[in-house]
Write a structure and sequence with these properties.
Chain A is an all-alpha fold. In chain A, about 80% of the residues lie in helices and about 0% in strands. Chain A has one domain. Chain B is built from four helices and no strands. The chains are: A mainly alpha, B mainly alpha.
Chain lengths: ~120, ~130
């Protein structure tokens, strides 16, 4: 016998089974990215096409390196959770599951590769 | 106790076209999704660029050549616009989530701000990066 009542189990969870957690994460990460992205665009844009030495010098400094790491991490978390909503809108069953797995996997690979690269450059 | 039953829930139908006349609000909303997903291309190129920078001068030459080639330039330029569009459209969502700006007139105005604003911000960014 379960001691939790149905109401207690359902409260705040809704059809998504996780309540509004997903939507709330999108809000939190979007506000974070709103602060991070403009500065990053200019730092990355200046480094791009400026040659090896200059690009290396830019991302050896702590601020650009930390900012780049944050943009890659928060940006890709925001990406795979956002892409998931689109997948759930138009795909069902196994296709849906595989597409979500592929998106999450790709995001984690890019996060790991990006942070590895930045750490190697900066340290 | 409530039994868990497997129900084939309906998918959201694609409304624009057969059911709804295309409007600024719907088109500017779907562009948010398109730009957000398309940005993965620019991000892949960017992570490749960082990996090449970490790997040394020869690798970096190859990556930078591709990314600053004319194809790469077009991809990066479109990505820049996509960032700004998604940025403004995201701010619009934050305003809507706060329960503000939902009147039709304001909502349409916000849509135009996303469209024109993203172009203006892209041009400004390119000009600043060029100088």
């Amino acid at each position: 016998m379960r001691y939790l009542t149905d109401r207690k189990r359902a409260e705040g969870k809704g059809a998504a089974h996780s309540g509004t957690e997903h939507h709330w994460y999108m809000i939190v990460s979007s506000v974070a990215l709103a602060f991070l992205v403009p500065t990053f665009l200019f730092i990355f844009g200046r480094a791009l096409g400026s040659g090896y030495e200059s690009a290396l010098a830019t991302f050896e400094s702590p601020f650009p390196a930390i900012l780049a790491g944050l943009v890659i991490f928060v940006g890709l978390q925001h990406f795979h959770k956002g892409a998931r909503v689109a997948i759930e809108d138009y795909a069902q069953g196994t296709t849906r599951k595989l597409l979500i797995m592929a998106t999450v996997g790709l995001s984690y690979v890019l996060i790991a590769a990006g942070i590895f690269a930045i750490a190697k450059i900066a340290l | 106790m409530a039994e868990k039953t497997q129900v084939d829930r309906p998918l959201s139908p694609f409304m624009i076209g057969p059911y709804y006349r295309p409007q600024l609000t719907s088109i500017s909303s779907i562009l948010t999704r398109i730009t957000g997903n398309a940005l993965i291309v620019g991000v892949i190129l960017m992570v490749w660029w960082f990996l090449a920078l970490a790997a040394g001068p020869e690798y970096f030459e190859t990556a930078e050549w591709w990314i600053t080639s004319w194809v790469g330039n077009i991809v990066m330029f479109l990505s820049l616009w996509a960032v700004w569009y998604h940025y403004l459209a995201g701010l619009r969502h934050l305003i809507w989530d706060a329960g503000k700006g939902l009147e039709l007139e304001t909502a349409e105005k916000l849509g135009w701000i996303c469209v024109y604003g993203s172009v203006v911000l892209t041009v400004i960014t390119v000009l600043i990066l060029w100088i």
